[in-house]
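for ur thesis appendix - DNA polymerase III subunit delta. copy paste whatever u need, i formatted it the way the template wanted (i think)
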Amino acid sequence: MELLQLVYGTNIIRIEDKIKTIAKDYAGTLDDFSFTKLNYKETAIEQIIEEAQTLPFLTDRKVIVIEEAVLFTAQKAGGSAEHNIDLLIDYIQNKNDDTLLIFTVISEKLDKRKKVTKLITERGKQIEINEMTEKELMNYVRSVLDRQNVEISSEALNLLLEKTSYKYEAVHNEVSKLLLYCDGNISLQDVENVVSVSLEQNVFLLTDFILKNEKEKAVKLARELILQKEEPMKLLHLVIGQFRLLYQVKILNGEGYQEDNIAKTLKVHPYRVKLAMRHTRMYPLDALLKKMIICRDIDYKFKSSYLDRNALFELFILEI
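the 3d part is after this line
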C-alpha cells in the first residue's frame, strides 16, 4: 500500500468512509495508538512530520489523517498554523518511515500546477470521491433498510432521492430519520412527512415555476425560503447558476452530447443534468439567453443598489 494518500471530493461522509477503509486495511484495529487525526489549518508542517516519523506505541502500524489539506488546492490555508511547504516537499521526496499519511480535502478539484500536488501524485496515490449514481444510491438505501428488516416501495424510494437531490450525504441523514419514524415499511406518505426538501431541490422548483410563468407560486416559495433564513443574494446566485446550467446543457445537447458526457464536461451531478434536460427541450436557446441577460442585470442591481434585497429578489422573479 502507498504510504502517502490524498483523498478529495465534495461528499464528506463518503470521504470519511473511504479513510476508515484505507486505515483499517493498513493498521487493522483503529484506536488512539494507531489512528491520529490532525487539522492542516491548525497544525504546523514540522509537527505533522514529527508525528509521522515517531515510532508507533503499543501497535505495529500507525495512520495519520491530515484534514482540510487545502495546500493541494487553490484555496487559501487560513487558520493559526504557519506552513513550510518546502519542508513537506522534502519529506514526501525522502519519506522513509512506515506511517500511512492520508491527506484529505473537501474540494471538487486539485491545483495540479502546484509542485506539492504533482509530487504526491508521483510518490503516492490520489483518490477522488465522486457522488453516487442513481443506481448506486438505490442499492445503498435498500442495503441499509434490509439490515433493519425494513422495506420501502419503489415510489417512496424515488421520492426520497428526488427530495434529497440524489446526494449521498442527504440520503444518509434522511434514511436515519425514516428508520426512527417508521416501523417495518416506509410508504410514500412517510417520505412526504419526514424527508426534508434540499435547498437544491427548492431552487430547481423555484426555477421551474419561473420558467412556467407561475409567478405567484415562485414568489410564495421564495418567501418561504427567506423565512427559513436563506439569504436573497445566495438564492439569486443559485437561481442564476440554474439558468446558466440550462443554457450550457442546451448548447452541449445541441452538439450531440449525452447526459453523462454533459455532467462530466460541466463537472456537475448527473441528476442536475437530468433535470435540466427536461427544461431545455421546451425552451429555445435565445429564450434562455434573454433570461441570462436579466440574471446579469439583476445581479448588478443587487451589488449596486441600497434597496431591500428581499424586494429586489421578488422583483427579479416577476421580471424574468
